[in-house]
Design a protein that fits this description.
Blueprint (H helix, E strand, L loop, with lengths): L5 E3 L8 E2 L1 H13 L12 E3 L6 E8 L3 H6 L5 H6 L5 E2 L5 H6 L32 H6 L13 H6 L14 E2 L12 E11 L2 E10 L5 E6 L6 E3 L2 H4 L3 H4 L6 H11 L5 E4 L2 H8 L1 E2 L3 E3 H4 L10 H9 L13 H18 L1 H6 L2 H20 L2 H10 L9 H7 L5 E3 L18 H11 L5 E7 L7 H19 E5 L7 H9 L4 E7 L6 E6 L2 H11 L3 E2 L2 E2 L1 E3 L9 H10 L6 E5 L7 H8 L5 E5 L12 E6 L2 H11 L3 E2 L2 E2 L1 E4 L5 H11 L6 H35 L4 E6 L5
Parallel strand pairs: 2-5, 4-15, 4-28, 6-12, 7-11, 11-13, 14-15
Antiparallel strand pairs: 1-3, 7-8, 7-10, 8-9, 16-18, 16-21, 17-18, 19-20, 22-24, 22-27, 23-24, 25-26
Helix pairs in contact: 12-13, 18-26, 19-26
GO molecular function, one term: exonuclease activity
Keywords: Exonuclease, Hydrolase, Nuclease, RNA-binding
InterPro entries: Nucleotide-bd_a/b_plait_sf (IPR012677), RBD_domain_sf (IPR035979), REX1-like_exo (IPR034922), REXO1/3/4-like (IPR047021), Ribonucl_H (IPR013520), RNaseH-like_sf (IPR012337), RNaseH_sf (IPR036397), RRM_dom (IPR000504)
Length: 713
């Protein structure tokens, strides 16, 4: 069974607040593994980190938690797909800690090992025994058969294997003759485009041992092309229009051209064979041949320059030349076989890569400064290597991080020179480039016009007002001489009450009750409407305002929120019950994973309700039937599906307890100004959610994706 990477975060309820340093820990370990002092995060765990296909951070500039809940219904995709949600504590610019300059991190969280040639990431040339190439092959020269991948290695690296269920319908090259050290080598490389089917071949190149090109043919994809990936493949729609050659034609020609003892050579050749839907038993993969530590791989472009002294994949060219890449891979294999592992190890490729990356980073950072500043710096300061940062570490390990956004990143030396200017353009670029990068930061923006302080104050007041209305219920009518204590007791069984007042402006008295949790108000509406309380048949309803017209829709969507999956709310608990008592009482419930007992954030006393999280949704549904009407130490329980089990509960509490600093007239004026631009803002948010949906769907399996609302202050 294939291992897949996954994230486990046990935070729940009050613990769902994390610091920026903790998020930095997660990103660092996800991207670097155990390199550069990276370790498993202290607050969560990534299983099978080496199987991660990539890390994608989507930043929604000018947006905060306030925007997420104000436009909760518009974030249709975001709230249904992302299963972990955390509140970030306020801090300095988090993004700067990723880019490098101005990072405010504890020493143990800072990327180490980039400031001197004695760094851990640079192997000493005098100690070749520690070189991964020597450890894998030994020092002596061997024939080519010693470097072909074994069947186990092919399986491990996702090569098409004969008899595998995943390779049903694949064409076998029928090159089954026994290989010898004199068997012929052939270089193979393909260019692919993205279609409705996945990756499909658009160009195939085959070169022989003398470097002669035997095949260099365009191929017509079977399915509709979604992305030509022109920047990398060099393929355009116009080029493929007259093409008649199909994949089956290429398969037939390759079978005819390859001798029965042929050895195919390529760089990450598994992806080429998968796209060709062909099985070949004997391969040399140069991405694995030039071995590195921690399962990392050198890029073909770097190896061609460092080993062969050749420049390939030049930026001036439109896309890669598959014949050039096939020839480079073939010559690298020939060099390795002819020179032997010891000579290759003496090249000290890790040191060469580090020097190249640091020089590149230094040049880029210098290029960002005005010329006068650079001259002044050179006069006043001694030369030194740039301060190491997270993205520098990625560069040194051979991973080129992708940064896309509206504005240049003045805190990093990794800026793009032709950054897009609109969210739509950023998305299009991301769809092309993110699948090809192991670490990406994609930055979308609302626009500066939406961060004016008066607009934010008005937005905050609208959210506070709506939350207050959702937490409030009106109940009645009651008799003139009704018992207020009985009413408070009955409604208190639905959840903790923040305030209870009697409404006397009506013909008969009503009560207005504001709960501390959404579930309490909803449970009161569902369980007490139409019942007899304090001797009167009453109606229970929420306030009727324009903002509350979509309340039922919002409640339903909160209930279906992925964060509340398998979570139920239980009310009616006695204050004398401890968490240990509840653990004991609920221990008989099947698949119970976590119990969260909310506390007053000021007094520390727990409330008369709790949340139960189950491993399976069905177990939560079964528990609901059991708990409703259940009596625990003389207290009758009520329960329902959770609406705000995670950080929303804490946020509601903070919103309701924060002081309003502005007078009513000022707020009224700001609310009017906000309503004029709110419709545009709602459209923008809906578009951003759609952008995230498209980008998310384009990601490979086993990609860690994080969406960040950095806030505006």
């Amino acid at each position: 069974q294939e291992k897949s990477s996954r994230l486990s975060a046990a935070l729940f309820g009050e613990d769902c607040e994390i610091s920026h340093d903790q998020l930095y820990e997660l990103l660092k370990y996800a991207a670097l593994g155990k390199c550069h002092n990276a370790a498993q995060p202290s607050w969560c765990r990534i299983y099978h980190q080496s199987h991660l296909a990539g890390v994608v951070v989507i930043v929604l500039h000018e947006m905060s938690q306030l925007h997420f809940y104000k436009f909760y219904l518009q974030f249709k995709h975001l709230r249904k797909v992302f299963q972990h949600r955390f509140t970030l504590t306020p801090s300095a610019n988090f993004l700067a800690s990723l880019y490098g300059e101005g990072a405010n991190l504890e020493p143990q969280n800072t990327a180490q090992g980039l400031t001197s040639p004695s760094s851990d990431c640079i192997p000493k040339s005098s100690d070749l025994q520690c070189d991964p190439i020597i450890r894998k092959y030994g020092e002596k020269k061997q024939g080519l058969t010693s470097y072909t991948l074994t069947l186990e290695e092919q399986k491990k690296n996702d090569y098409p294997i004969k008899g595998s269920p995943r390779c049903k319908g694949y064409v076998h090259t029928e090159c089954d003759q026994q290989r010898t050290d004199s068997s012929p080598l052939f270089g193979l490389d393909c260019e692919m485009c993205l279609t409705a089917k996945g990756n499909e071949v658009t160009r195939v190149s085959l070169v022989d041992a003398q470097g002669r090109c035997l095949l260099n043919e365009l191929v017509k994809p079977e399915s509709t092309v979604v992305n030509y990936r022109t920047r990398f493949s060099g393929i355009t729609k116009k080029m493929l229009l007259p093409v008649k050659t199909k994949l089956s034609d290429i398969q037939t020609r390759l079978k005819q051209m390859l001798p029965h003892d042929a050895v195919l050579v390529g760089h990450s050749l598994n992806s080429d064979l998968q796209a060709l839907e062909m099985i070949h038993p004997s391969v040399i993969d140069t991405s694995l041949l030039f071995a590195r530590n921690e399962g990392r791989r050198f890029k073909l472009k770097f190896l061609a320059k460092a080993v062969l002294g050749k420049e390939i994949q030049c930026e001036q060219k439109l896309g890669h030349d598959p014949a050039e890449d096939a020839r480079a891979a073939l010559e690298l294999a020939q060099f390795f076989i002819e020179q032997g592992p010891a000579k290759v190890a003496e090249l000290n490729l890790e040191m060469l890569l580090t020097a190249e990356k640091l020089a590149e980073v230094s040049q880029n950072k210098a290029a960002l400064q005005p010329q006068g500043c650079r001259v002044q710096k050179q006069l006043n300061e001694p030369p030194h290597l740039p301060k190491p940062c997270f993205l520098d570490c990625l560069q040194v390990t051979g991973q080129k991080p992708l940064l896309l956004g509206r504005q240049e990143l003045d805190s990093s030396g990794l800026c793009q020179s032709n950054l897009s200017t609109s969210n739509k353009q950023i998305l299009q670029r991301a769809l092309e480039d993110v699948p090809l990068s192991t670490f990406s930061i994609i930055q979308f923006s609302l626009g500066p016009e939406y961060i004016a302080s008066h607009l934010l104050a008005g937005l905050c007041e609208k959210v506070r007002s709506k939350l207050t209305d959702m937490l409030t219920i009106y109940a009645g009518p009651f008799e003139e001489s009704f018992c207020l204590k009985s009413v408070k007791k009955e409604f208190g069984r639905c959840g903790p009450i923040q305030s209870l007042t009697v409404v006397t402006e009506t013909f008969q008295p009503y009560v207005c009750i504001q709960y501390e949790v959404l579930e309490g108000a909803q449970l009161a509406v569902e369980s007490l409407n139409g019942t007899e309380v304090a001797g009167s048949h009453i109606k229970v309803q929420r306030p009727v305002t324009a903002a509350m017209l979509d309340c039922d829709v919002l409640i339903k969507e909160l209930e279906l929120d992925v964060e509340n999956e398998g979570v139920i709310y239980v009310a009616g608990l006695k204050s004398s019950l401890t968490e240990t008592d509840l653990q004991e009482e609920f221990s008989q419930l099947k698949d119970l994973k976590t119990l969260f007992l909310p506390k007053d954030l000021q007094s520390g006393k727990h409330r008369n309700c709790c949340f139960l999280k189950f491993q399976k949704s069905q177990s939560a549904a079964d528990a609901l039937e059991v708990i409703n009407g259940w009596t625990v130490k003389g207290s009758k329980l009520r329960s329902r599906n959770a609406l705000a089990s995670g950080h929303l509960w804490r946020w509601i509490w903070q919103m309701n307890h924060s002081k309003r600093k502005e007078g009513g007239n000022i707020l009224c004026e700001k609310m009017q100004q906000l309503s004029a631009s709110e419709q545009d803002l709602r459209k923008k948010v809906k578009q951003l959610d759609h952008h995230i949906k498209k980008l998310y769907r384009s990601l490979q399996n086993n990609t860690l994706c994080i969406v960040l609302f950095p806030g505006v202050n």
